[in-house]
Amino acid sequence: MAKKTIPFSKDQLEEIINEFGTPFHIYVEQDIRENARKLKQAFSWAPKFKEHFAVKATPNPYIMKILKEEGFGADCSSLSELILAEKVGIRGEEIVLSSNNTPAEEFQKAIELGAIINLDDISHIEYLEKWAGFPDLISFRYNPGPLRGGGNNFIGEPEEAKYGLTREQIFRAFQIMKEKGAKRFGLHTMVISNELDPNYFIETANMMFDLVIDIYERLNIRIEYVNLGGGIGIPYYPEEKKVDLDYVGEGIRRSYEEKISARGLGPITIAMESGRMITGPYGYLVARVVHKKEIYKNYVGLDACMANLMRPGMYGAYHHITVAGKEDWPLDHVYDVTGSLCENNDKFAIDRALPQIDIGDIVVIHDTGAHGHAMGFNYNGKLRSAELLLKPDGRVEMIRRAETLEDYFATLDFSRL
Q: Cα 96–97–103 angle (5° rounding)?
């Protein structure tokens, strides 16, 4: 079985903990940069390629700045995310706002920033026009539903999702916008999450390029921007393999040449909105063991909880665990690894084979660089942890301080009690 390792020794972690305490999320800058470059290289053939980093995955301006330096834009879905993009100098069509039951103020901010707006429903055309006006480049999100006679091995069942327009609505929406004077058009889809089969992404590109052709033939509208969404998974389990980006890029290149270039419908900007794949494997949640409990099962209690990492409790998701300094010890004990919330699903692992764990041990939870800190919350009055960045020169920088009790109580006015 492949082995997951951590980029820190126990002594290094002790030094970091002495300065910042626990728990914390820590990201590895050099690994994030190298991964970003691999994605860009896989699509270097494209007339224009743009990765709009999914801000929701890791909404920290220091991470976003790193990715901006690597040529990435921002995929935003809220006012806060739009402002984060603005704060790090991402503007114009480097930003795409993917609409999802979107309020007027978010559309207005996107127009102010010159962003691409990606509408989620045909009814949003009238709403957008009334409250914000239209962007230079208008895009629509496509929900393919049950494709090709009962579905597609890679697509799954997007008809169960709340997102996007049906095929016929897509044609109606583009016709409406053409009649309203729009000149620049885009398409978007996002129909799966955390997928490890690389063929799925090639199939999605085939589907979207076919739709580009159909829109041109039916409406005489040229699509200049095709956003293939995100959804590239990461190998949470040690035995899983990461997606071969070069294979994906080459498969999409062949599809583009056969369907778009051969018909003279290019050049088209190929866009993606990966989040998890960009930062996920390069973040870690570090915590201390504060309690052990032996009843019907053996429990290890951390000073982190579900408020620091929601995915295991919410989805039953697997996150690998390393006990620092015990990497080579036998996995001869079985534990539930828990937090301190008053909820029984506050568990990072259930029946996990681990080395013998002692109070005071440092536990490192892998693959928390996306949808980790971002999904934090304050239930039970828990406070969200700090975020740290491991720099290429070995320095550790705090990029978000831990919340304090003062932060938690800041929205309350006790004087009126």
A: 165
